[in-house]
Amino acid sequence: MKITAQEEYGLRCVLQLAREETQGTPGSTLLVRDIAEREGLSVAYVEKLLWTLSHSGIVESVRGPKGGYRLTRSCHEISLGEVMRVLGGIPSEEEICSQFTGNHDTCVHHDGCGLKPVWASITDFVHSVFDKVPISSLLNGTIDVRFVQITSRNSSKPPAPAGAAVQS
Amino acid sequence: MKITAQEEYGLRCVLQLAREETQGTPGSTLLVRDIAEREGLSVAYVEKLLWTLSHSGIVESVRGPKGGYRLTRSCHEISLGEVMRVLGGIPSEEEICSQFTGNHDTCVHHDGCGLKPVWASITDFVHSVFDKVPISSLLNGTIDVRFVQITSRNSSKPPAPAGAAVQS
DNA sequence: GTTAAACCTGACAAGTTTGTCAGGTAAATG
DNA sequence: CATTTACCTGACAAACTTGTCAGGTTTAAC
After folding, report:
1. What are residue B53's phi and psi, to 5 degrees?
2. Which of A110, B81, B93, B142 is the most buried (most CB within 10 A)?
3. Looking at residues A139-149, what average pLDDT do you find?
4. Which domains does chain A possess?
5. CB contacts, 8 Å: A142 with chain B
6. For residue B15, what are the CA distances in angstroms to A111, A166, B20, B21, B85?
């Protein structure tokens, strides 16, 4: 259960833009160079991360001099879950058993596999928590995710919408 | 947020031993060769996984002919969290910020880092769920982790003990 | 003792992820 | 319209993870 580098650094970039949104003038942008400097990352790497984020609709770019990047929506309306899904390449329910490079072509557990529903429940659960955390709450010091209210959904849950279900 | 191959395959081996415990005679063991065959893994790989597990006290080996591996305790007393911690190399609280190979020697967030407590809370939270799932419950078909009772601990929580806190 | 069946171990090849590089294309200012 | 400042993109080197290999050592049965 690891957090990937892409998730870590991508989220940091988003948080820089969120800070700019709350502290700068409305619509102001941040240069890639500045984000890279503040995070100790290379310009090229930050560009790559922002490319992923912009193609998922979380951030947008303004070209030309005085250009830069900014969030597409208020940082109160963007959830941690939305950002993590974009950055992490969360495996879908179907991919859970096929993401492993074992030497068997078909999952030996395809019948009576007790593990697949476990993984599915875990990732689903983690995201239900993430979806309730707006990134704005990550700006000021500390948030304890354990205090997030968990809604214990029934098994007849509706499929989760692609967008985030942020609830302040 | 990824489940590593070691976690996946290591847990499968543990579940094979748990099944043997519930279905075989008391104290009976399972051959590495048989586990490998049932899971579609190589004998060498299963040996490596079991080595990790045995050095953490989750499984033990019986040498010689008629030897093999078995769990050290009943599968009702071993939690998913305990197995995952052994297999995943979960980073400790101090390592959370240093597990990334960025090009900065000191974490740029060392003062006022809003991310570290988030990662810490998330991993802590996930494990508090895992610790409540005995591996015996993974044997028969499906368990939905979402229905596990979450105890919302206070911030003045005692440090989590190394052993599992399984509660059936 | 001998043998056979099992576990133990370190080194290494293959594959994936991570981060960089070099060279593009687009837009606003003067 | 030239120039500067910025974003865009594909290919690739380095680092890490994954899984294998070859050869050990230990133990129980006969």
Report:
1. -70, -35
2. B81
3. 56
4. 1-168 (1.10.10.10)
5. 114, 117
6. 15, 37, 9, 10, 16
